[in-house]
Queue: 2 jobs
Job 1
Amino acid sequence: MLKQIEGSQGIAQAVALCRPEVICAYPITPQTHIVEDLGAMVKRGSLTDCEFINVESEFAALSVAIGSSATGARSYTATASQGLLYMAEAVYNASGLGLPIVMTVGNRAIGAPINIWNDQSDSMSMRDAGWIQLFAETNQEALDLHIQAFRIAETLSIPVMVCVDGFILTHAYERMDIPQQEQVDRFLPPFVPRQVLDPADPISMGAMVGPEAFTEVRYLAHHKQMQALELIPEIAEEFKSIFGRDSGGLISNYRTDDAETIIVTLGSVIGTISEVIDSLRDQGQKIGAISLRCYRPFPKEVLREALQDCQRVVVFEKCLAVGMGGIVAANVRMSIRGLNLPVYTVIGGLGGRPITRKSLAELFAKAMRDDLDETTFLDIKCDIVERELAREQAHTRSGAAAENILREVGVVDAAKTA
Amino acid sequence: MNKPFAITLDVGSSLLNKTGSWRTERPVYLDRLPPCNNACPAGENIQAWLYHAEEGRYEQAWREIMKNNPFPAVMGRVCYHPCEKACNRVHLDDAVGINSVERFLGDQALREGWQVAPGEDTGKRVMVVGAGPAGLACAYHLRSLGHQVTVYEASAQAGGMVRYGIPKYRMPRQKLKAEIRRIEEMGVEIVLNTRIDDIQGFKQANGFDALFLAIGAQQPKRVEIPSDESIQQLDAVGLLRAIEEEEHVALRGRVVVYGGGNTAIDVARSAIRMGATQVTLLVYEAREKMPAHEMEIAEALEEGVEILPLRAIREIRDGSLKLEQMVDGEGQWPQASGQFENFQADLVVQALGQQVETDLLQGLVGARIEDDALQVDVEMKSGCEGVFAGGDMVPSARTVTTAIGHGKHAARSIDAWLRGEQYRKPVKHELVEIDKMNTWYYTDAPRTVRPMLDIVRRQSGFAEVVGDLDEINAAYEARRCMSCGNCFECDNCYGVCPDNAITKLGPGNRFEFKYDYCKGCGMCATECPCGAIKMEPESI
Amino acid sequence: MPHQQVKFYQTGTLTVGNRLLDKAQRTVQATMDRSNSLDSGHRACQGCGEALGARYAIDAAMRATDNQLIAANATGCLEVFTTPYPESAWRIPWMHSLFGNAPSVATGIAAALRVKGRQDVRVIAQGGDGGTTDIGFGALSGMFERNDDVLYICYDNQAYMNTGVQRSSATPGSARTATTMPLGAEPGAEFDKGKNVPLIAMAHGIPYVATASVDRLHDLEAKVEKAMSIRGARYIQVFVPCPLGWGSKPADTVKVARLAVESGLYPLFEAEYGELTSATKIRRKLPVADYLKLQRRFAHTLKSETQLARLQAVADNNIRRFGLIDEQGD
């Protein structure tokens, strides 16, 4: 059924169609609307056999989900940014215990400085936490990925994080195709837990494991993710057969067939990038793009195959490994090792800075000329940075860089005089 | 369930981890000797019978007493209960009223007609001389062991000093008779009014295989007091016997009893009951050194007996006693002070103790008489082969309970001797002191006070002074027993073990340590209320 | 004839079992078929109060729920000594997640059971005082205010023992820990700090709050049973001496607990919906020094009249505040 609704609403409806049994909610922008919608459904009675629990923190939200999942209930929660960091300990714990929880991350920057807008630093901080990470390109895909996420999670007994760009997707009103309950039920069988807390068959879950077995436990977790590399495309295929849509899988290609230059990215920015590619193609440029729909496990082989015939790779990412550079780029380089391809890293859209077609077009043109630095910060205001650096050199104790930059752009003074 | 590796474990799998290897000390269960049992001259297993009584299993309790003492109803009245003096419960509130429970059980047995069966016939015949507590106890035990027993008694009634020396108000006669009858019903023959002068000859002539002598100490000790015969003098033993035989006794007017022992008290209290206007105990020793039992003294005082301690009668003249004040010496005999006073009296009763009639023992070849007593060895055997002896006639504390203990002990020795063996007492366990116990676990439970007869009735007749416990009181009193030194299955060890390293074996079967898991923390021993666990160094 | 009124006292009424007691009055620990929820082979130190307290509490809860029980456990000694791979000492469905989230995990378990219609299965969360009063406190408060159907049991040994005896907010004034050494002007932990979580729990208005001690098994079991008869958030804090951390003899664990209660330093009480409903009376009041002298962590207080007086004042204040001594006597 086609509906013109907010992305968060679409996600909420998808989650509801998955018949979740326990939902834990704690407000943090920009995921809030999702759990608000789910809460309303439970209150209204349109979502039944579901416990909706308002908790006191994100740490509690995921911890409640850990408890409910271990007791055999299909469990869901959502978070973003600081919230994801606040629950970090539980994020690792859920995957370590092999609990098939599904969690939406409404991608948002991490402070300080505090910032509510979109980038992907939050999800990236948890990339090694043992969860499967899926990135949605569109709201339709965000909706579809949630349905697939439960299936993947429960098949492998591993938690899945569905990463959805904050505001850009979560707050955008778009037309979405909401599946029928019957279709979802056909795709997603009832949850049969691999292990469950049950007085009839007691177990001790969450043992302390020492050096004698810890490596093996970790290897097995890694192995599970390797299995996911095969499972995720299969499930995407099955999804297509029931719902008639291409969603999920490991990567998606956009006009890469004869591309000499390929942009690799994740999330919703693929939309803007595609438009720029279309116009460059119109100008006869051989350029294409690949979107990583699955970041963990990293689809190393599939990506290598997709990139092996091009001449250069530009990784466009909304996150930064401070002191190192691109996070995604490092993974991409690893997958094409030995192919002798230049890989350019572009960091853009941090803290919600708009990514314009114009800037991208200029960037890609430079890339095609191999005129890019190894790492580029898209649309960085160099004058501000230079002034601040100069000032820092003059004053050994300069105060917080963030505040100084805001002063440079006039925000702080304005606030003071207001 | 397809459990994930290492992070999820099977329940109870820790049993594979034998933590017993951590131990440097191991707990062991043991039985320690409770102080009551240790103190009982009759060797009763007091704790064991209280254990049964606690649960209202009175017959079992009574049978437990009967293993050592055939006179619970008598004991419950006349025993001076050294057990209670030893009782560890005094450290909490007051001693357990063992004596009163014993009396309840003794009386209950008489009401219910419980009987003890004789042992399987051995074909041996034993002769007992003297039907006092020692002789009857010995006869009872020998009969229980299957021997034929005949008891010869010079007096008209059986019971010895219990009958002829203890007044009725302390020892009602029907109870005594009933307990003696029970022994006769087992097949013990009692021949009364038969004084045997040639004991050895009689034994041989009648073909007895062994002999137990228990003729007591019935001759009064007297001091010669210069007297003009103006005041009549009697002796206590003769007087009490006369009262028992209901002869006319003139215990009237101002009666002086000379002596400070239990017999003196018995005479004084009898005098009160027979209408004496004034009864005075003249005691040689200081008040606190009087040999009489405190309880007896207290009851006598309640009834109006006056006590004058540290007095010696030096002369009787003109209807008056000349008394010399004595001075208490440190742990020595009192010293004469040279200070005199006169005391008016109508009658003086000497109650200065008794001695053994040793003439009867002259014919026993090898028997040794020293210090006014027939000497016996640890098996109660005299120097004369086949002749055993006990009770007041051998060196002893001269109490009824001691005599009963002698009777039992002698019976076991005789039984062994008849089989050509030697009786060996079982080795005693170590005594349990209060510091080995954890008395926290015993609820505060004040002693039950036995009802007492009204003072007016005590002063005017020989009705029994001390009343009975009823069944509830008896059970209550029994339950005050702390079971010192012996596991009473309170489950404390089983409960407090943090390692679940104790197996409960079920009612009556106590517990067992699981040394595979016991880490030797010692909490079981610390928390054992009765001191029945001890920690021993582990041999490494 | 006048008879003394007979109260039905019995030998060893206060013991774990005792053949003379009515079956109903005996503890679970006296039964041959107790569940031994925490079984042999665990790696707790000799004389561990927490191991004992946990078996007491969980066995009682097992009886109260007809063995329909699931437990969530915070990180800490109890977790470490019961479930080091490859052996578990638990016999119940049990889960450990993190140090500070046991109340939330338990909430999740309870939610799952509710949604599955398995309300016959009851949930316990448990942890030490560090996991409860410090790091897990937010989660605990959240569980309380939501009135989730969870009994939280805190085994209080008054410091972080698993990490080597550091101070927690449950450490009493003057106590020596690795982070409050007996040095300087105020040796040991400072007075007038720390928090009283039972009282804070009461302030949440939850249906049931109680304190208990390993030395009062009957009392402890009655409280667990009472707690299991109630739906909603419940809190029981059990006093569990730690021989290693306190410097007491392993054999004295129960004794130390008894003296804490008898001195008035550890008041045992119950509260329902924020109101005190009962206090376990002190049987034989003792000076605090009797309790302190069994433990090395308080050794310095015996030499300081000021500290001794302050500790005695804490005890006296408890006695007054919670009515620990019956004025009439009984």
Job 2
Amino acid sequence: MILGRKVGMTQLFDENGEVVPATVIEAGPCHVVQVKTPGKDSYAAVQLGFGKIRSKLVNKPLGGHFKKAGLEPRRWLREGEISPEEAVKVGETLTVDIFKVGDKVNVTGTTKGLGFQGGVRRHHFRGGPKTHGQSDRLRAPGSIGASSYPSRVWKGTRMAGQMGNVRQTVKNLTVVAVDPESNLLLLKGSVPGKIHNLLKITLTKRGIGG
Amino acid sequence: MSIIAQVESKYLKKKIPNFGPGDTVKVHVKIREGDKTRTQIFTGTVIARSGSGVGETFTVRKVTSGIGVERIFPLHSPNLSKIERVREGRVRRAKLYYLRGLTGKSARIAEKRKVTKK
């Protein structure tokens, strides 16, 4: 697992000269701030810190947490599962070279927030007819349920509401390039969220080399 | 330099011949057939160049036996071994999409005149 920030998208050419769409991620270096164990914390996890932060923005309890690990404060702290093989200790640094070209990864992030959207945009409803004596029906959702039974609207019925700004994981993206010098990771395909969005990149369970 | 530009710089071609819309070009395309590769030449008029960076493309149009054929090539593709400019055209716009609606004499493009000293 590593933390990163989305830089943007571009394209590159593979060995056959085919165009590959690629997302550039500035990933790591991350520092292990805490290792949680089933004995002490009732679950196993590793807590990583990532990104620079001015010392002024770190409050005392958080500063103390980093001090305990013997590290500079970091902007983001995120937890994740670790497999037994990649056993890490507090204070260790994880860089982008934990990934190799061809590996499959899962990327978790927050999608772009699109605000309160109607059914047409949010669920691809068709809307109503434009003509034939209609008024105010063009983008209406239509029926939201039957009548006397159930006499209510079923839970989970698709309606207008907040769209985006939710946590999303994109699975099985292929690593197309790794640049440990400038901490860059290039993945085939797109990842959630806007540029500068914080991302969590994990190797898929099936792991190395896809 | 932005990070994206830095990443792209590895994939950019060093030398790209100077050509633009209106020019007639010969594009040498590498074609892979099984294990063999051969080169095919596509000759036509450049009707557009679009995009920037590694994603820049150009569109070449030719008319073969009365049927218009257009191909869009990625400018920096390693499959393009060579781009030759055969003729320089004199045109007044960047995108020559109007050529699609024209045939025969009206679809011609005048050659660019070289500036000569008197």
